[in-house]
Design a protein that fits this description.
Length: 139
Amino acid sequence: MEITGIDMLRTEAERKKLVPHKSIGISLSVKEVKKEDDRILIGFEHIVKYEPEIGYLKFSGNVYLSGNENEVKALMNEWKKTKQIPEGMGPLIIELISTNSAYNGVLVARAINLPAPALPLNARTELRPKDLNQKDSNI
């Protein structure tokens, strides 16, 4: 199964008051999963709330997946039974939605004078054996 695309279909934003925010809450929910022609459509909603009741950004759209007939059938059966995206695809879909919403959120937030939402970090850190023996660093 592979991700073949994402469509941002709706953006909604509101600033209720111009005061410093105390926290930013982020929620991501899957609204629907359905088979459409030879692919799977995952409808989502991504919301950024600036607290206390300062404003919000809301993004809705679809992620598209394709796969062979057995993969499509397995994903649809899993969704119907558990309302969960299969474990191997979930993190990739979340990262795709979060990244797209955050980049779009920067522009939308700026337009209504809200702080930019946090961009997701996709950093991986690992130490390789040769790194452990190095004495100097040019960082």
